[in-house]
Structure formats: structure tokens, C-alpha cells
Amino acid sequence: MAPARIVRRPQAEVPGPWPDAIPPLLRRIYAARGADTPGLARPRLADLLPPDALHGLDAATALLAAAMAADRHIVVVGDFDCDGATACATGVRGLRLLGARRVSHAVPNRMVHGYGLSPALVEELAALQPDLLLTVDHGIACHAGIEAARARGWQVVVTDHHLPGPRLPAANAIVNPNLPGDGFPSKTLAGVGVIFYLLLALRRHLRDGGAFADGEPDLSVLLDLVAVGTVADLVPLDANNRTLVAAGLRRLRAGRGCAGLRALIEACGRDATRLTAADIGFAIGPRLNAAGRLEDMALGIECLLTDDTARARELAQLLDGINAERRAVQQVMTDDAEAALSRAVLGEAGAPLAPCLFDAEWHPGVIGLVASKMKERLHRPVLAFAPSEPGSAVLRGSARSIPGFHIRDALAAVDSANPGLIERFGGHAMAAGLTLAQAQLAAFEQAWQAHAATVLDDGLLQAELLSDGELLPREFDRFHAEALRDGGPWGQGFPEPLFDGHFEVLDWRVVGERHLKLTLRHPDRREPLAAIQFGGWQGQPPSSHAHLAYRLAPDDYRGGQAIQLVVEHRAPA
């Protein structure tokens, strides 16, 4: 694989006027991301898109309002990832805020029920005697489960954001911004964003019916959950999603998040007053996800629903321990994957265009992380498979992709050309999941590689780092480091600022076995700069002059006015 290439973003015009509090550095970074006005750069909650254009809301709100009025039992059915867990907690908390008296929740166990609302889960839910099932972050592909629920006389309302297949499930109502013909302007809502919008519409429906004589419930108290699920699910942060995430981060920084999220922030050693989207993505989200990967996401949802601080801390510590176990399992599986790819590279055929990895000993809850790691290292689409349970002849697969290769559409193309090969699949442009029989793996891999060969070319396989250019010598300071940190939320589609430049390496040392601590000199700056490259030690000393792609960050460990460069890419100058 060719090394990553640093490409500088085109410099965009920065029209005015801008508030004095936004420095010129941030203004040009916003403009380069298409946010060339203060309103686009830092959207306010008052600018949130109204729910009106979201298809299916009228039917869904009517069903929920009727169920609440008749005191029927509503069961919110979550999913076993962070988006699904926060969506479930948002649904339960929101319905109770709006006056529902009989609300409970359920979530599939990855190892027992499989994905989403499956017939196996429906059979288990019968003991709860539900009247209405409300799915969150899934349902659009759960045909058999929804049919089983309807056969029992239950109503089913689906809220989802995944791309629909050619046939929609037989639910009583479906709310999904990605349905054909849906007019909602933002197609990138996470599952938790969809249920939040349904709650907004339900509140309006109830208000129009004469409810809330004693005061209207404040649904903004749910935005901490919405922010965590949106960031953790890696959906693009368009202006609407940034509005949701920014509002949720403000609640968390002010210490007004739910007890479970406050406890998770504490458990992962983050400073709540300086919390960023990156903290959600790299610390809070993984701890919630770990429950669904190795144990039972019911633990994560309980953590998000409890209002008991002591119980929240107990659950957060438990989730922290499960996450540590997940990291250990992931490391073993990643080592296995790297060894398999090394053998492929040494073989006659070389590394495949879109590797398919399988090991009978792998854990199905961690294959997505393995696929993601291998995708990052190879800059190629990667699929990782594991038995759905120990000894099973059914495989679960997770796919991760690169820009320009729509992974869900690629699976659809293979499925269309080979009917019956894939049992089920679904997902997005950059991530997808699938199920197939182990006996079909070889045939699938052949079909998959053939399709990849028709789409992937050298241009797509060349990894690029998009840089915001060079920093001025005077911008290497704490003021600008904090402005960049707090100027987000940064994330998918609105990436954290990355800069590049040439530096002299004055000193270096290895820390923590794998990380490289550097002392640098900028050619136009007298004072040396501290830098760190995580995972940067590859057994060879760095060259005396280097071309670096880096982020400018406050160095809270040293405190005061200290800053450091976080190096993302290093090459000889």
C-alpha cells in the first residue's frame, strides 16, 4: 500500500461579519468546511430543523398518543450499540416525560437473538404482554420479527435511519429520513436523532390535543443522550447534527447530563467541563458499546436510565471493566488479522483489493472493530467474519469502507447478482453488517472480490490526509489550541482541524513502548515545540527533519500555557 499523501484543502473565502470571539484561524477552517457564516459554523438550537417534513410522523404520533391515552403497554426495543442504547434511553425517558405511564424497554442480546427485532426476541417479549413495540435504531430490515409481532396483535412503530431495502417491513408506521420520497432535509440523523424528532412531533400532537395544561415538558433534557449516540455512530455532522451535538455537549459540560453519562465521564477520567466530541467517540461511546459487544447492552441502557448516582457509578465501573476486556480481545483478533494479511501479501496473489477475514475463534461482537482497524491500516474496504455463536455454521460479518466505495450498495450489488448467497445485510456507505452460511463464505469472497475489482481503482486506494495548511508562527499558542478544541463539535463530515508543515526534530524518545515523544523546531519560531505521535514508534529513529501532519492541542498534563502537537502522520522532509 502506498503511504498516505498530504493534500491541502482549498482556501475558502471568509465573508463577514464574524464575532470577535471567533479568531481568523477558526474562520478559515469553518469556511473550508462549507460553513462560511457564523450561523453555519456554530448553529444554535433555535436553528434546528423542524420535524414537519419527516415522513411517517403523523401515523406514528397518532398511534403513540392513542396508546398513551388508553394506558396501553409501550415497549421500546433498542439495539446493542451506543446509538441503539442512547436511542432506547431517549425513547423511554421521553415518553415518560410526555405522560406515558406504562413504558418499558428491551434490547436483543447479540449472542442469543441476533440483530434487531428478530422472531426470537418477539417470542421472549411475549412475557411482557406489550400492546405496541417502538423500535429505535433498527427495524427497517426486520421483516420477520415485525411480522411475528403483528401476528400476535401488537402494533409496531419503526424508527430507524439505516438505508431501506427494496421492500419495507409491514409495520404500522415507519419514521426514517432515508425512506424513498422523504422530504426531511437532513438524511444523516442517527437512530437517537430520529427518536428525538418523533418525540418532538409527539409533544406537538399532544399539545394540539389540549395536553400540558400545567406546563409543557422540556425535551432538551434528552440532548445529552442525543449527542452521545450521534457522535458514537459516526454519522456525518451536518449543520443539524452539529446543532444537536453542541447542545448536548453544553448540558454535559454544565454537569446537567443524566446520572449514567456523568458517571461514565468520571469512569473514563475525562474533565466534564472540557468535554469534546472526541471524548465521546474515544472514551464514552466505546464503554457503552463494549456492553453490547461482549456482555448484554441491557447494562448500558440501565446505566443511562437510572437516576440513582450510586447505581450509575457502579454500572459505569462495570462497563469500564467490560471495555478493558474488549480491548484485550480486540488486540488478539487484530494480531490474528494482521498475521493473515501478512501471509496474503507474501503469497503469489498479494493482498486482496477488499480483504475478507475469518477466524472460527473470533468473537462476533468485536469483528467490526477489527475490520475498522484493518481498513485504517490498509486503506481498503475490509470485511471481518466470526461464527454467530461458538460452533455455529452461520457467520456474522462486519464491513468497513473507504471514501468512494459505498459498502452497503456493494453488498446489494453482490446480493442482486448472487440471489441467496447472503442471508441478510444492511448499513451505510462506510459501515455495514451481513449474515451468511459458513459454507457460502468462499463463494461470497469470490463474488465480493470480483465486484470490488470493478469499482476500486488506484485513486480510491491512495490514502489522503486533508490538511488545513500551515499554522502561522504566532498561532502556536494556548489561545488557538483551546479555540480549536472548543470550536467544534468536530467529527464525520466536519473533521477536526489538521495542519501540516516541516520541522526539525531536536530530540525524541519512546514512551509507553509504542508512542513517540518529540521535541521540534519550527523554521520561523524560536521556542521548541512538544509533540507526540501515538503508535509512532516503528523501530527506527525519526529523521532529523520531518514533514508532519498534526493537530494543535492544549497540553493539560503540563498545564499553564502548555501546548503540544499531536502527530497524525510523519514522513522524512
Bin the strand percentage: 15-25%
Give the overall pLDDT as a whole number. Answer: 93
Number of E-type strands? 17
Structure classification: alpha/beta
Evaluate the radius of gyration: 24 Å
Largest sheet: 5 strands, parallel
Strand order of the largest sheet: 3-2-4-5-6
User: How would you describe the shape?
Assistant: globular
Low-confidence stretches: none
- Helical stretch count? 17
Give the helix proportion (percent range).
25-40%
The span between the termini is 20 Å
Verbal overview:
It is a single chain. With 573 residues, the chain is an alpha/beta fold. Helices cover 39% and strands 18% of the residues. The chain contains 17 helices and 17 strands. Strands 3-2-4-5-6 form a 5-stranded parallel β-sheet, with helices on both faces. The chain has a 5-stranded mixed β-sheet with strand order 7-8-9-11-10, sandwiched between helices. Strands 13-14-15-17-16 form a 5-stranded mixed beta barrel. A hairpin with a 7-residue loop joins strand 14 and strand 15. The longest helix is centred in the middle third of the chain and has 38 residues.
